[in-house]
């Protein structure tokens, strides 16, 4: 009975265009957040999360896949947008199976989930924050503002990366007549590494070129190391500062700062506050510093280098540690993107090629060169996960109780 209904709905959907598919309804896990002002306090927002489009099943009316084994689109079924829209539908996500669960203002993301065949399989989810309308992404306009959240990185070993960041995606996810789901189905991803995906802002990838956009990594972390990094792009978004000027306390010589039992004890949750300070303290000025402060228990923990010019990312500091910062407009470019508005992304991932060495190995952290091998993580830490909670944003000083 259910199967018949599903097929009937599928045919209906296919008559229209590339619409949401019939098998799994898309039900966004609710994740409340709060928008704060100095005088009005914090107001709870009924936001939710949506799984990235690339994680979804695209299929024909006969349930044949519209993607190939290498992740690209089947060029027969998707020779052009109109054909793709006629031939293929996109399915809703099973969030538990994708490694994402939420409760109130808290979200847990898992690297591995139970496989139907026994053992585990890598889910490595990436999700975005949807507005209360569930139609568009929340556009975070954080220039001259601050952003706070709680994180529990205790179950992230060497080689894992629990990430919370901003990308300058279109708020609609590039919704168009051929891809009507848009942000509702997690479409439109871009970042400063210029990923090549099946669709670019809702339009078919036929050129094989990536989709670049400004990216602000608020936190990339595990229990052993962490970094926050602006990655500005050219205005025409054909290229970006891929390395960026990351601030990692361990690389700065603070080896017992972000550590289990360290100054910031990564065995327990804590609050991360990031402030985007402008030259004139307004929300229209030039981004002059990205400041960081932590709260754990009842302690306020300043960024690792407190005092001098070192307690924040400044344009001068970026230029000194990142040879390409100036070429991409440095903090000023990042600030304009923060002013226009960016989409909030969350992910958990590991890395088969470099084992996340840029985050936690050598001068960046205490992990050895093999600890981050995903097959080792899968064998020794199959329950590895990260918890993000209590997301708040607004005026400087408004998101953390005094
Ligand atoms: C969020 O939902 C709750 C419960 O439905 C409602 O009381 C509240 O007003 C909503 N908040 C906003 C900002 O719409
Ligand atoms: C593309 O789809 C067609 C029709 O379903 C199928 O015959 C063909 O084998 C597919 N090609 C690839 C490379 O998957
Ligand atoms: C979603 O996936 C979970 C775990 O794999 C499974 O137990 C559950 O039945 C699935 N839900 C639906 C609606 O298919
Ligand atoms: C959601 O979108 C509506 C309409 O565009 C807007 O008024 C509201 O401020 C948005 N809320 C958030 C949390 O972005
Ligand atoms: C993305 O798509 C939307 C909706 O079609 C469009 O308004 C916007 O200009 C596009 N953005 C870019 C950078 O192509
Ligand atoms: C993007 O387009 C190129 C050229 O058509 C193709 O080779 C590649 O597989 C596509 N990638 C994805 C992820 O669709
Ligand atoms: C993009 O902008 C950069 C710097 O402004 C310029 O050098 C480059 O030629 C531009 N590329 C395109 C394709 O317009
Ligand atoms: C901005 O605010 C800071 C901290 O309150 C203050 O020290 C500084 O003088 C202000 N700068 C301007 C240009 O108003
Ligand atoms: C707060 O600090 C006091 C001492 O200043 C300490 O006794 C108490 O345990 C702390 N509370 C927490 C939750 O850390
Ligand atoms: C590297 O670290 C992993 C995980 O902590 C450990 O299992 C392994 O023995 C270490 N290898 C070496 C060569 O020290």
From TrEMBL:
Stated name of the protein: Glucanase
Regions crossing the membrane: none
Enzyme class of the recorded protein, top EC level: hydrolase
Gene Ontology biological process: cellulose catabolic process
Species of origin: Coniella lustricola
Keywords for the protein's UniProt record, in alphabetical order: Carbohydrate metabolism, Cellulose degradation, Glycoprotein, Glycosidase, Hydrolase, Lectin, Polysaccharide degradation, Signal
Entry's EC annotation: 3.2.1.-
Annotated Gene3D superfamilies: Glycoside hydrolase, family 7, domain
Signal sequence interval, chain numbering: 1-17
One MF annotation (Gene Ontology) recorded for this entry: carbohydrate binding
């Amino acid at each position: 009975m259910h199967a018949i209904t599903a097929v009937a709905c599928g045919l209906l959907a296919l008559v229209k265009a590339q619409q949401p598919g019939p098998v799994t309804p898309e039900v966004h896990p609710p994740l409340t957040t709060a928008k704060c002002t100095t005088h009005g306090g914090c107001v709870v927002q009924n936001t939710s999360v949506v799984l990235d489009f690339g994680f979804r099943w695209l299929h024909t009316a006969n349930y044949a896949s519209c993607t190939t084994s290498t992740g690209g689109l089947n060029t027969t079924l998707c020779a052009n947008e109109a054909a793709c829209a006629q031939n293929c539908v996109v399915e809703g996500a099973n969030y538990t199976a994708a490694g994402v669960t939420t409760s109130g203002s808290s979200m847990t993301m898992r690297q591995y989930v139970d496989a139907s065949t026994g053992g585990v399989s890598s889910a490595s989810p990436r999700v975005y924050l949807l507005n209360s309308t569930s139609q568009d992404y929340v556009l975070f306009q954080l220039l001259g503002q601050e952003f706070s959240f709680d994180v529990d990185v205790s179950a992230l070993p060497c080689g894992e990366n629990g990430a919370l960041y901003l990308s300058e995606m279109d708020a609609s996810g590039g919704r168009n007549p051929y891809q009507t789901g848009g942000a509702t189905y997690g479409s439109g991803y871009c970042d400063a590494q210029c990923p090549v995906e099946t669709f670019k802002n809702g339009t078919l990838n036929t050129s094989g070129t990536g989709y670049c956009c400004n990216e602000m990594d608020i936190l990339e972390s595990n229990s052993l190391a962490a970094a926050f990094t602006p990655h500005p792009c050219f205005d025409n978004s054909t290229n970006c500062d891929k390395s960026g000027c990351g601030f990692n306390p361990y690389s700065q010589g603070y080896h017992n700062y972000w550590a289990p039992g360290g100054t910031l004890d990564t065995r327990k949750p804590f609050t991360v506050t990031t402030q985007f300070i402008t030259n004139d303290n307004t929300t229209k000025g030039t981004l002059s510093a990205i400041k960081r402060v932590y709260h754990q228990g009842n302690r306020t923990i300043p960024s690792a280098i407190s005092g001098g010019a070192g307690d924040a990312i400044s344009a001068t500091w970026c230029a000194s540690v990142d040879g390409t910062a100036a070429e991409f407009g440095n903090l000023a470019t990042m600030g304009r993107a923060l002013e226009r508005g960016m989409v909030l992304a969350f992910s958990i991932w590991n890395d088969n090629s470099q084992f996340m060495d840029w985050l936690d190995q050598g001068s960046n952290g205490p992990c050895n060169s093999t600890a981050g091998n995903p097959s080792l993580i899968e064998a020794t830490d199959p329950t590895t996960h990260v918890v993000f909670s209590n997301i708040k944003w607004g005026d400087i000083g408004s998101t953390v109780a005094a």
